[in-house]
């Protein structure tokens, strides 16, 4: 049995889409376990760019089964649009995509709730994408959520919809216009979605476990990253789901004994979107150069990402809470040409020297990075496919990461394209 979890080890946007795409070649199943259409996984194949928001990256391989698990929240119109666009571009969907009956649905009122909540926070706003992800998870935990399976029980769907709309109108009151939240209109629209998605809806937990029992090779694909995890991230500036490796179990209905490895995806520097503490953030010209060279703009929102140096404090935390068995480094080529590269080895907060990520928000907000400076490299790493051909200082940079984290680097991405890669260890 081979079942590998692919998890972001930073604040998301690490390049998981490409790593999943590459590993999918040897996989039988790719299963997404959390998040929503706020995620944006970019894959470049033969110079053609694909941006996937809900559908697992494995869909770009015609013979792979792709699963959207129960831990994902789904905005039906966005999913249908994504399916339609992929079909237009010649990607097989009909028999390759399954959606969990137990996944929760994003409703129109969830977006209004999220936007209004952000407005009230002022300078303390989270910096959400405004796509209704958080309120959908809130309803899930409050046991008032609407699931995919409810689409096929119209009476249940309508009963839940009426109750939820009454509560939403009570909460929002005069804060925004709720006249568009018409129960009849929403009901009719979502019944239309039900018809379009029906061929893909299944008991995915049963199917994934059956596949594992048959020794099929499975990739579990997460969205966002460890430091955005609702339990283990920089709370409250986090997402609303379990982005760490453990989320694969709850988000797909599979036991931890079925998982054979956890691959953490690490960008060669660090980025963050939205609000929240970011000790290694670079606010000078170097940060701007990294942003432009790395194309650090959200694949979903287009928002510019904050850029900073590699942070061993956050990465040690990611190794621990995910149980990483290997690391995939991405965007190494973006560091090409830098004379000096800094690495954060600890934080300083007041009189304290911190080697572990603090849970106390005030400590994290005031933390200053303790840097180790290393020599950069002038040679290009783009397209290199053998570790020994990397510039010597790039090799040293990678070895320093391995030594600090106690985890081997299995994969090094040296460019955007699928074939621009150094594969040091097979995952299956």
Q: Would you write up a description of this structure?
A:
Strand 3 (41-45) and strand 4 form a beta hairpin. Helix content is 32%, strand content 21%. It starts with a strand and ends in a 5-residue tail after the last strand. It contains 12 helices and 20 strands. It is of the alpha/beta class and 428 residues long. Strands 9-7-5-2-10-1-11-15-19-20 form a 10-stranded mixed beta sheet, with helices on both faces. It has helices spanning 16-24, 76-88, 108-121, 133-141, 154-172, 183-197, 204-213, 247-252, 285-294, 312-322, 361-366, 392-405; strands at residues 2-8, 29-32, 41-45, 48-52, 65-68, 73-74, 97-100, 104-105, 201-202, 217-221, 261-267, 270-272, 306-308, 310-311, 326-330, 340-349, 352-354, 368-375, 409-413, 421-423.
């Amino acid at each position: 049995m081979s079942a590998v979890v692919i998890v972001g080890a930073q604040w998301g946007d690490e390049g998981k889409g490409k790593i999943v795409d590459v590993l999918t070649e040897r996989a039988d199943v790719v299963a997404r376990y959390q998040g929503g259409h706020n995620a944006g996984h970019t894959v470049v194949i033969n110079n053609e760019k694909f941006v996937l928001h809900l559908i697992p990256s494995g869909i770009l391989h015609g013979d792979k089964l792709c699963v959207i698990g129960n831990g994902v929240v789904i905005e039906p119109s966005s999913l249908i649009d994504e399916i339609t666009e992929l079909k237009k571009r010649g990607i097989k969907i009909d028999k390759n995509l399954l959606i969990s009956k137990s996944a929760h649905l994003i409703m129109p009122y969830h977006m209004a709730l999220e936007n209004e909540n952000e407005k009230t926070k002022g300078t303390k706003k989270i910096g959400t994408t405004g796509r209704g992800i958080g309120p959908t998870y809130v309803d899930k935990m409050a046991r008032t959520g609407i699931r995919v399976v409810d689409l096929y029980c119209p009476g249940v769907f309508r009963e839940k919809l009426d109750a939820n709309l009454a509560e939403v109108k009570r909460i929002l009151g005069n804060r925004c216009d709720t006249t568009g939240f018409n129960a009849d209109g929403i009901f009719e629209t979502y019944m239309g979605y039900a018809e379009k998605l029906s061929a893909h809806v299944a008991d995915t937990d049963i199917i994934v476990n059956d596949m594992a029992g048959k020794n099929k090779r499975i990739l579990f694909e997460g969205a966002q990253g460890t430091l955005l995890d609702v339990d283990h991230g920089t709370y409250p500036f986090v997402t609303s789901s379990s982005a760490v490796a453990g989320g694969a179990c709850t988000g797909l209905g599979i036991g931890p004994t079925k998982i054979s490895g956890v691959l953490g995806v690490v960008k060669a520097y660090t980025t963050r979107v939205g609000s929240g503490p970011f000790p290694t953030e670079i606010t000078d010209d170097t940060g701007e150069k990294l942003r432009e060279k790395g194309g650090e703009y959200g694949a979903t929102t287009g928002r510019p990402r904050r850029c900073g140096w590699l942070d061993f404090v956050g990465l040690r935390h990611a190794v621990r809470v995910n149980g990483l068995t290997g690391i995939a480094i991405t965007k190494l080529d973006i560091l090409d040409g830098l004379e000096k590269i800094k690495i954060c080895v600890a934080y300083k907060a007041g009189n304290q020297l911190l080697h572990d990520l603090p849970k106390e928000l005030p400590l994290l907000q005031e933390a200053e990075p303790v840097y180790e400076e290393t020599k950069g490299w002038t040679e290009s790493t783009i397209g290199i496919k053998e570790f020994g051909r990397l510039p010597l200082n790039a090799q040293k940079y990678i070895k320093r990461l391995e030594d600090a984290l106690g985890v081997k680097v299995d994969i090094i991405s040296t460019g955007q394209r699928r074939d621009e890669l150094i594969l040091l260890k097979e995952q299956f």
